[in-house]
Amino acid sequence: MKNKFLAIIVLFILSFILVTCNASQPQNSVQKFQSEKVLTIWWNRGYYPEQEEALKKIVAEWEDKTDNKVELLFFSEDDILQATIDGLETGKPPDLLFSERAEFTLIPQWAWEGKLLDVSDVIAPVKNFYSHTILKSVYLYNNVNRKSSNYSVPIMQQGLHIHYWYDLIREANLGEEIPKNWDEFWQFWQNAQKNLRQQGQTNIYGLGLPMSIDGTDTSIVFEQILEANNLQILDEQGKLQIDKTAVRQKIIEILDWYTSFYKNGYVPPNAINWLNYDNNTNFLNRNTLMTINPSMSIPGSQQEDEEIYLNQMRTIDFPNNPNGAKPTSLVSIKQPVIFTSSAHPKLAKEFLSYLVEPENLGPYIKGSRGRYFPIMPQLWKDPFWTNKKDPHISVASQQFTEYQTSLFDHSRSHAYSQVHSENIWSKAMQQVLIQGLSPTEATDIAINQIQEIFSQWKTQS
After folding, report:
1. Are strands 156-159 and 328-334 parallel, antiparallel or unpaired?
2. Which of 151, 164, 207, 254 is deepest in the core (most CB within 10 A)?
């Protein structure tokens, strides 16, 4: 009887253990599922701590309000696109991506290939805050679904800006006023270089113009020069115009004009090897009198030194176009995307919806110290953008609010994004400056390459 009683107890204990184990398995599975359900965000690293801290704050507030978890990873400009390409190939892209360069290069291609999620529902609640031009920049064609829609979300914009050393120009004894007319403007910096060289400053160059295929700045600056010369590579419908004799001849003339500054010694010799930050470095080291930069990172880097920021450095408008018309600034619209293969697309949409609320987006853009500018009208009301005591941000703001702006050509045709990706204009400069080809020969090569790119996109449609 005693043995039978012990056997019953043992069976009871074993049954209890089995029930406990079985009961705990679903709970553990739920916990594991919840721990895996983390929104992964890959974001272009900011130039300043304030920019990243502002985004971290938005992420933390969203986590608190929604009980969701976020893994926020920052990548350099050079690394983020390659990491994303690798992630797409392995089927493990981030849930949400923001890259500074993607709108020029890969976003139109990803939309075309059906790799981006339609985010029209994210834009809808704030659609009235955007202009037609802004919405056009994210209205992309999906060749898989055979439809156009919003496959990215516009959050801010960026333009090209001219900076120069005010104190060095005063030393050059040319007067403090920078000419507004096109030819006089460019001659001014050459004259300043000559005067400073005569004073013994042998390492100074008048123009900090990028000429390298290793950085995207070269093509972006050259596109602005094309715009100033009213040269339309594409018409409003996105059709190529480079087969026209007048367009081809104008490209030859502009390429010859641009590269002549280097040939004649007004651009640093190492400009043919510059990475994107090298024009910044050469300018900040006072090796160049002026430079054109696709952001406000140069003055932003000097905000802690009031003497340099307020008194020695200046930001100015572009000169009038060669035909005398007021300048039109090319702007790029910065835009996060969600991939169709993202693990948590619904969460990514929810976070983007939170980010684009003006009260959240405004502080993030301000954290960039003027590297980015608002696209929502109400955000311009912040005196941060118009404070005349700031000689850089207030001037740059006028390019967006008071002067005409235009989108880059990839907004007219997705195929043009590949022209950016392959650095066609930068290669043409290298062919002239390094290989010794004539501007005519280099232009014809570039035209053939662009035509081939467009024909490939056409056959894919």
Report:
1. antiparallel
2. 151
Q: Which amino acid is at 170?
A: R
The tens digit of pLDDT for each residue in 54-78 reads 999 999 999 999 999 999 999 998 8
Q: Domain spans of the chain?
A: 36-157+333-406, 159-331+412-460
- Tell me if 36-157+333-406 shares its fold with 159-331+412-460: yes
Angle of helix 424-433 relative to helix 245-263, nearest 10 degrees, comes to: 60
The pTM of the full predicted model, rounded to 2 decimals, is: 0.88
Fold held by 36-157+333-406: D-Maltodextrin-Binding Protein; domain 2 (3.40.190)
pLDDT tens digits along 198-234? 999 999 999 999 999 988 999 999 999 999 999 999 9
> What CATH class has 159-331+412-460?
alpha beta
